[in-house]
Amino acid sequence: MKTTVFIAVMVAGIAYAVGVTVLYERCNENKCVSRVSKCQLTGACGCTLDNCTCCVNCTLCLAELWDDCCSCVNMCKPRNMSATDMASYSTIHDLLFNALTEHDKPHPDAHWTVERVTPQEEGVILPGLAGPDNSESRDNSPVESSPSTKPATSTAASANETIVPMDTCTVAYINICLGLKKCEDACEHMGAAKYRWFHTGCCECVGSTCLSYGKKKALCRDCPND
């Protein structure tokens, strides 16, 4: 009997611990509660991803805590999504990324800078266009990856037709140096479809309309690029 009670208590304790861990992975209350409360009281974070009217103001208010605290205001990728949820999530995050990169010169307090990129600058060879410049330094070779499985957007009615981009490719460079995992998280939380991480620590978040992985140059403002 005592053994049974002991096992039951242990199971309950483990379940509680796992629940607490998941909770704090979703929203680090110790780290975020003060800033999140301020942002919610001022109305800076009073919207949702599918109605992204406050997205820019919310990222500016959370500032350097955005990556750690966006889950507290329901603007991070939810866990354990189905395929249907993932498709909806990708659409919503396109809206977030578009909102954050709408202006070529973001708010002075923003922690990113925006670049518009041509297919040539992406290294995409299209019929009728000059080939890409492949003069980048090997020491600056990037790691390229995608937080989502959403393909780059392009149109072609047949194999003989010219492939043309539907929209301008937009990328956002995080101002400061980041590690690879932090770069992935930062781009995910901005709503980017992909990211490019340079070995210098420069992090480039790539929009869903880009045909490849954005610009092949490290242009982070406050991160050494050589």
From TrEMBL:
Enumerate the residue ranges of region (Disordered).
Answer: 125-157
Q: Which residues form the signal peptide?
A: 1-19
**Gene Ontology BP terms:** regulation of BMP signaling pathway
Sequence ranges assigned to domain Tsg N-terminal in this UniProt record: 27-82
UniProt keyword annotations, A-Z: Developmental protein, Glycoprotein, Secreted, Signal
Q: Single GO cellular component annotation? A: extracellular space
The main location class comes to secreted
Indicate the segments forming the Tsg C-terminal domain, all copies: 88-224
- Biased-composition ranges for Low complexity? 145-157
Q: Give the matching InterPro entries.
A: Tsg, Tsg_C, Tsg_N
Subcellular location(s) per record: Secreted
Keyword Secreted set for record: yes
Answer yes or no on keyword Glycoprotein: yes
Q: Which domain of life is it from?
A: Eukaryota
PANTHER family the record matches: TWISTED GASTRULATION PROTEIN HOMOLOG 1-A-RELATED
Q: Which family does it belong to?
A: Belongs to the twisted gastrulation protein family.
* Name of this protein: Twisted gastrulation
